[in-house]
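User: Structure tokens for this complex, please. No commentary.
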Amino acid sequence: MPLEAKNLSFRYERGLPLVLENIDFKIEAGEVLALFAPSGYGKTTLAKLLAGYLRPCSGEILLNGAPLPEKGVCPVQLISQHPEKAINPRWRLKKVLEESGELREDMLSAFGIEKAWLERFPRELSGGELQRFCVARALLSGAEYLICDEISTMLDVITQAQIWSVVLSEARKRNMGIIAVTHNMHLARRIAHRVFDLEKREYI
Amino acid sequence: MKKLNRRAKTLLLCLCLGLLLLLVYISGLLIPEEAYAPDFMAARLSPSLRHPFGTDTLGRDLFWRTVKGLSVSLTVGIAASCISAVAALFIGIAAAVGSKRVDGLISWIIDLVMGVPHTVLIILISFVMGRGLKGLLVGIACTHWCSLARLIRSEVMQLRAKDYVAVSRRLGKSGGWILVNHLLPHLLPQFIVGLILMFPHAILHEAAVSFLGFGLPPEQPAIGIILSESMKYLSAGLWWPAVFPGLTLVLIVFLIDKLGDNLRRVLDPYSAQE
Amino acid sequence: MIQKNETLLEIHDLSVSFRMYDATLEQKELQVISNLHLRVRPGEVVAVAGSSGSGKSLLASAILGILPSNASVSGHLHYKGRELNSQLQKELRASKIALVPQSVNFLDPLMRIGPQADGHKKPYPTEKRREIFASLGLDERVEKLYPFQLSGGMARRVLVSTALISEAELIVADEPTPGMSLSQALHALKMFRALADEGKAVILITHDIDLAFGFADRVAVFYAGTTVETAPAEDFCTGPEALRHPYSKALWRALPQNGFEPIEGFQPYAGSLPQGCLFAPRCPMATDKCRCEKPPVQDIRGGEVRCFYAT
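Assistant:
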């Protein structure tokens, strides 16, 4: 099941300049692709387009040759840079996980989540711990592709390594595709099979 | 004594106020009419132990009349603000979730209602509905929902733009599910505080409209009526019929207002860090 | 006291705690920074590295005196030998100490970028600002924009520029680089280095430690609200064998270019800190002694470390 971006262009409003222009790439199931671009290039916008949060002005995103479904659970899930914004502050974390699927206790350890955290509120956990919940939530939904938008930029290197080891091992287990948006070349080389430079439009 | 923190204070205030209001309400229901029946032998008595608030020109005990009056005011206030607040919740959500046209229509109605001074509008509605308790209730309920509805509308709009709502949508959750699970828990505190802060408004308006003679019938003991009667005798040196009932009204309104304010701060999720 | 004179900022035994409600009506104190020591000299870039939530940003707030009202501070802060109390902080905040805040939310959303970066200085240092903007890769048209029109990386560069424009002696930069491209981040760090070479001092709080090592003189490693090691930056470039504390070594090994190996476990929470060494529950070489006793600060090979078994 390949995921393709075909000739994607995007602008926020009519009359404004294009944020993204004619982006093309393709990723296969089980592959890890790193998207590398300088600041201000529209990486977050691209990530949102790929996960269906925004609709492109022209071009299309095809999963297995068909456009992403409008309704129902999206097979492409986005994990954002700011976990604290992506989690409802009034929910206990157990509910956060249950939002996307049935929670089985044996899965917790694979996600690096301590059982005691489930009864807490988001403000009682650190960013790294919350990010694990965002990862777990995306995985529990049964996604086929994960878009990771700078998911470890705000975290320390040990937590970064912990989170990526969870993401990568689950991806291998489920033959998922990962698109990792990052500005860190060392990280991109370490986790990805291929690195695509959005600015130069070439694989490195 | 240990200094109380805000949570403990608010809880204490809640309890005291709840008890006080309940006491006023129940005693208002239980007072026999004889307690404030006219007694011409005891007319125009200044405050004393037997008559803590004194008596009026007809010799009615003002303390019991005030309590009875407050109990009526509270009934009107609570009923009217509950109706008003629930209406505000639905209207606010409808405006935020609905199409541009629905939003425009609701905003237009809000502007219209807020454009006319409350008191005038209450009097008009109350007249149309046939005055009395019913007229007053409908009048107050119809005029007090606007600001809360606006607040809820903007709150819902902000919440809908949150990342976690967008995530929820991509996890296949329906609009209704998001409303109940994501939005309502955030709105509930706003709603409760809005409701509580509406009480004093409603009570004051009830008193004001009755004072002007457009509300409750003159034979009913109500704060507005007592105050309006007392005006006539103020120049004759009868100060107590105006002062004590007036002060009681102010006190109750102040306490409820304070409670609402404290509650708002406690319900804020960031208030844990204080 | 020659030592004192040449120290710009001296932090001795600093603790910061917050008053919080627990589940009931009671309030409790949560200690988030404990017994922290740090010394910054003029001409120096001190990088502060460590885990997320270890109190690094709070340190910045404590230095500037902008902690929220429910925080309480104990210990000593000295600025040029003077006790850094809230009055002095207020005075210095305006002129001598600059903060590069962590979040883009620190920008005034209703103010154009140009005047915002200038601060309250008059006459406006327009020329200097343009120079700094240009060197950070910010177009001249950026000064006409409002904060919401900036991308994350651009906003960060604007935040960095504010500190460069101000003529502060001490710059506290709280995560200045995320969202920037590598060359921009390197450039920003180079500018901090240049400021230090002019005799100013920079405290650089950062996760991008691999970048920071190249520009810093010393690195302070934070864990669970205290410094576990303060070492010359070269030691971090050399590798784990030059480092003293097991946490610093773990940090080095977790870098994507150095193995990307995570260690198990999580940083303990303020409020349920272990009795002994804070790192003991995750430390491969912890003994019973580590679990019961807090290790004191020791000077080893030109660095300070809190570990019984540091070599």
